[in-house]
Design brief:
alpha/beta; OB fold (Dihydrolipoamide Acetyltransferase, E2P); 2 domains
Length: about 240
């Protein structure tokens, strides 16, 4: 499993890399000392796992995750235990306090192996501009709250000015992105641009009804209703085989 270490302390990176030599299933393919280096390294190497420090000069580990379109599995490593609750709120794989203890690291690696047990290995080949699919996870940050979310669980994206409201579970966080930019990154086989304001997850469609002016009204599982514009209705019918 290809992994990178992100930590501003060189000795901390060296110590963790040394501990990880005990695990043949983990291959360290790079190290970064700040979020800018880490961002470039992740896009270049496409790791499946990040050992990520939180407090670093120039930005936090959460800031790094917020910049990524597709987020690998994350294990936080930090000396500040007050961040533990926040880390688990975002559903990180685990949280290790520095100095990392070998026994605690072993527990984390075991947890990671269980997490990946039923997941098919994907190619490690970096594919530029590969669309985000239902199998990918994204990082959503709204104020002090953060989440790792599988795209399969996001039923709706709604434009709201310069922000997008993300619908998953009972949450509606706002992210500072444009709907047009997001539409270009999502897999068109799974997500549909219903109108200027909405992108829907096709796997969440529960019911479709004719609507005014040749449009359609789509009801998603959970009760959300989205109008498909007349311009998009024919394309939507074709995709849904209506």
């Amino acid at each position: 499993m290809k992994a990178i270490i992100v930590d501003d302390e060189r000795l901390a990176r060296k110590e963790l890399a040394s501990l990880l030599e005990e695990y043949d299933e983990i291959e360290i393919i790079g190290e970064a000392a700040n979020i800018d280096e880490a961002y470039d390294l992740i896009n270049e190497k496409n790791p499946k796992l990040i050992f990520l420090d939180i407090q670093m000069p120039g930005g936090t580990g959460f800031d790094l995750l917020d910049k990524l379109d597709k987020v690998p599995h994350v294990i936080f490593t930090t000396a500040y235990d007050e961040f533990a609750l926040k880390a688990f709120e975002v559903n990180a794989l685990d949280y290790l306090l520095k100095p990392v203890q070998p026994e605690r690291l072993g527990e984390t690696i075991k947890k990671f192996q269980i997490e990946k047990e039923d997941e098919e290995e994907k190619s490690d080949e970096v594919i530029q501009d590969k669309p985000l699919t239902l199998q990918d996870q994204v990082f959503v940050k709204d104020g002090d709250k953060c989440w790792f979310v599988s795209l399969s669980n996001i039923r709706l994206f709604e434009s709201d000015g310069n922000y997008i409201k993300v619908y998953f579970d009972n949450n509606r966080p706002m992210i500072h992105k444009s709907l047009n930019a997001l539409d270009q990154k999502l897999d068109s086989r799974s997500f549909f641009r219903a109108s200027r304001k909405h992108i829907i997850n096709l796997s969440w469609v529960e019911n479709i009804e004719p609507w005014f002016n040749g449009g359609l009204m789509v009801r998603l599982r959970g009760g959300d209703k989205v109008e498909v514009s007349r311009r998009q209705a024919a394309k939507f019918k074709d995709m849904m085989s209506l």
